[in-house]
Each structure stands twice: as C-alpha cells, then as structure tokens.
Amino acid sequence: MRFWTAIGLILVLSATGLTYEIAAGRVLAPFFGTSLLTWTAVIAIVLAGFSLGNALGGLIAERERGQALRTVRAALIATAVLAALSPTILGLVYALGARGTGGMLLAVFLAFFPASVLVSAPSPLLATLAVEARPGREASSLGLVLAAGSLGAILGAVLAGFVALPLIGSAATFAGCAVLALLCVPFLRSGDKGGPGHREATRTFVSALLPLGLILAATSIIGPVCRFESGLSCIDVARRGGEVSLYSDGIRQAAERVGPDGAPDDGSERLVLPYTDWIWDRMVMDLGPAPSVLFIGGGGYSLPTQLLSSRPEAAAIAVEIDPLITDVVRQNMPWAGDMIERVGYDASSEAPQPGQLGIVHADGRVYLNETGHRFDAAVMDAFSSASVPAHLVTLETFEQVRRVVHGPVYVNLIDAPDGPLARGTHAILSRLYPHVVTVRGPLSSRGTGNVVMAASSRPLEALPTLPEEYERARITPGRAFTDDRGWVGYR
C-alpha cells in the first residue's frame, strides 16, 4: 500500500469516528435528553470503544498480511452495518424499557460501543503499512500517522456539528458514516492493481453493497428520529383533538387550541399549558398596561403572543437559540405563527418596540451579557430537552438578568417538588431578590413536574386562584448554582 493511501484512510476513518460520536450524542437527546451526564456517557463509551478497537487492531496487524487485510475489511463492513443501524438499536432498547441513568448507559453501550470498536480496528494495520512504505523514514512517517488521526478527528467534529447534523439530520449522518466506512474497503488490498489481492478487495466491497443498501433502505422506511431537526433540536408537531403541540427532544414545549380547520381557536382561553397560565396571571397582576418583557427561550412563543394579544402597547423580545424552532412555530402553530408574521422583527440590534415581537436567534446568556436594553420583566423559559441549560441557571446569569430587568423575573423549571434544580434556582433567586414565590404542578410518572417561580424586589401579591392541580411549594434551602459549580442534569 502506498504511504499516502494509508494516511488518507487513517484520516477518513478518524473523521468517520468523530462524526459518529457527535451524531450519537445528538440522536440520544429525544430519548434521554441532553445534559452533562448524557454527553459524558457518549464520550466515555465511544472512546472506550476506540481504545479497545485499537488494542484489537494491533493484534490483527501482527497476523499474516493477507489475513490481516481480510479481517480489517470485515471490520469495516461490520462498522457500516452497525453505524446504519445505530439509531434503530437505540430506539429498540428504549422501547424495551431502558430508563434513567442506568438505562441510558445501557442504551449508549448497546447502540454505539460495537461500531466504535470496529471503526478503530484498522488503524494499527494502516499505521504499520504507512511506516513500512517509507524505509528509513519511520519517525516522520509515524508523526504523519498521528497527525492524520488528529486532523481527521478535527474534520469529523466540524463536519458533524457544522454541516451534517444541521443540514441532513442524524439518521442521514449515521448513513453517511456507514458509506464512508464501506468506501475504505477496496483500498485495503495487497499486491499490484489487478492482482489477486486487488480482486479480492473489490469482490468484498461489491458483495457488501447489497446488504448495506437494504439496511439503509429499511432505516429510511422506518423514518427519521425527528420530523424537524437542526444541530440543536429534534422537533415534532402533533395535533390531537382541538390542540396542536410542539415537542423538542420528545418534551412538550408548547401547545395551542385550534379549530376544526386548524385555524387559531377564537376562545379567550388560548394558553394550554398550566404553567403558562400561572406566569401570565402573575404578569397581569405584577406589570403595568404596556410593559417591556424579555423572554429567554422562545419555544412555542405562547407567552409573548399572549402578551401582545392582550396588551397591544406592550413590547416583547424573545431570545431563541434555534432558528428552526421559530420556523416550525411560524408554519405549524397558527396563533403564535400569525403573531410572528404580523409583528415579528429581527431584534438582534434593535430596541424593544411597542406592539412588536422582537426575535433574537442567539444563546440567552450571550444576549444577557451583551444587551444594553432594559426591560420591565423577564421570563426565563429556556430548555434543552427536559432541563434548563446549566449556564442559564447560575448566580452569574441572574445577576445579568437583574442588571437589565428592573422588575419581576419568572422562571419555569422541570424537577421534583423539592429537587436539586429547584433548590439551586431558589437559592439564586433568594440571594438576589427579597421576595420569591414558588408553585408546582402535577407530577409525571417520573416524579417530576413544572416548578415555577417568581422573584421581585417588591412584595408579590398572592394570586386569588392557581391552575388546576397546582399548589404553593416550599423549597428547602440549597446551594446556589454558579458558573464554577453548576447544575449537572438529572441522574
């Protein structure tokens, strides 16, 4: 094998491995969410697979050369099959009852560990071939082997995060990894072109095309994990009865009432999710007739739409990190979509405008750090899967909120009634504001539910009623999250 052929194969397989690893973290989100724990599990298990694959690959490289090449070709074919099937395996393990941290670890191991082992198995043999191809230049050859592996990892990370996942989605990204692995097979041959080794490699490649094609066709029939997918979100929209709901990573984020024709319901009670009812009732009681409100987390844009529908002179700016969510809302959520079409504008560099819905596609923390605008109130309702992003629930974040907001702050969480996220967030608000009230909603089968807080420098008058099944909550004093020691996600 020529030196640069070996180097090229090392680069391609390294890129394939890193693309596969990042896609694994993305496709895991609809089933187990996105958190420090899920990404830790993916990185640790996939790297363990790479390590074992390299160790086994070293043993393979010591075999007779023809046998080693045949084994490596088989490993790449198996890599292609398993990479294509990874999302299906993950969904199957989840359907069979994998839940919680233990279930998540099991699902990651079964879905992603085998392919991680196999994709790295050819590397020792390729390194050996590269070094042997330049006698007397072993040191520089080894350096280029290591550089190719690192460069491939960089290319794989960039390809996954900036190109593949945002543009074609996770299922197609896994299929692409399968194709790349298979395309390496014909190059793993011994002897001259046209010789027995070359013909054997070609036959192996061609014989693998049909079964892999059938697998890819079957996975395409099953359909993608997400109806709409970006590099940040796996989004679905579902209509049941008189409601249309927006889901992100399998979590219901917003809902609207609609009529039989799919148009917005003309009834006065347009807010569907009870936590939005409570926040809106608080806003009615706490704010004046034309407030300027900052919404961190656009989601379904229900509360900004309610604000501008009820108080036309109010101003709203919604900071939503994922432009795809805004597009999906515009096309599928008739009430909020109509509001965005009529009064929405790009507020990236604009001040709040009365009667207008400013939209900023940016990270909420970045916006808070950089904005020079001031607001009468803020709603913190940003989610990544089922949890608040850790960097948006720290003392430093809410110090920035207090800098730009001179009125009350409303915070929506999902946690156990007195869970660690609720305790840490309550500790932050209690440190910064003298008046904090908390309510909680009904619990899911997992023992979690909405925990909603309001914090203000002025006394907060009690609401006369609460949403159905909601009650006031007492939160045990806890440690305030900081940028240094923050929320790590559900265990």
Automatic annotation (TrEMBL):
One of its GO terms (biological process) is polyamine biosynthetic process. The chain crosses the membrane at residues 27-53, 74-97, 103-130, 142-165, 171-189, 201-223. Residues 1-193 form the Major facilitator superfamily (MFS) profile domain. InterPro entries: MFS_dom, MFS_trans_sf, SAM-dependent_MTases_sf. Keywords: Membrane, Polyamine biosynthesis, Transmembrane, Transmembrane helix. One of its GO terms (molecular function) is thermospermine synthase activity. Signal peptide: none annotated. This is Predicted spermidine synthase with an N-terminal membrane domain. The lineage of its organism: Bacteria, Pseudomonadati, Pseudomonadota, Alphaproteobacteria, Rhodobacterales.
